[in-house]
Amino acid sequence: MASSLETEPKEKEKTTSPPKESPMEMLFNIDSLTGGQMPMELVKRITFVAGLILIYIYYTMLAEGRMHQIVTTKQELEEIRADYTTQKADYMKVGKQSYLAIAMRRYGLEVSLTPPIKVVADPVKE
């Protein structure tokens, strides 16, 4: 029985296939370039470039957010301008004499048909 136990692991070793490489390892295999070790200079450069990329992405997002804010503010400003123009036109329309006459009738007042008289006072001499 001892001999059968010893032969089983050897048979398993013979039947196992070499480990298969994953698709990522096949695509990004740089062992042939680096000799199986990752040089620290390359790691430093990769880290530096990755940091620059992250900073670029951050500032791009900030710029896009600011542009969106500017567009929103411009739209709000246009709405306020339109409201102002409308209110000003309504105010100018109500200020006309014909509209004032209609508004005065509610209170029982009428428009005077005689023009105003200019009163001139003599200056007092002392």
What does it look like?
The protein has 126 residues and is mainly α. It has a domain of 84 residues. 69% of the residues lie in helices and 0% in strands. The chain has five helices and no strands. The protein is rod-shaped and about 120 Å long. The model has no long low-confidence stretch (mean pLDDT 82).
SSE blueprint and pairings:
Elements: H1 2-15, H2 23-27, H3 31-34, H4 40-94, H5 97-105
Quaternary assembly: single chain
Give the tally of β-strands.
0
Outline type: rod-shaped
Number of helices: 5
Any key phrases for this structure?
69% helix, single chain, 5 helices, 126 residues, mainly alpha
Please give a quick description of this structure:
By secondary structure, this protein is mainly α. The protein is built from 5 helices and no strands.
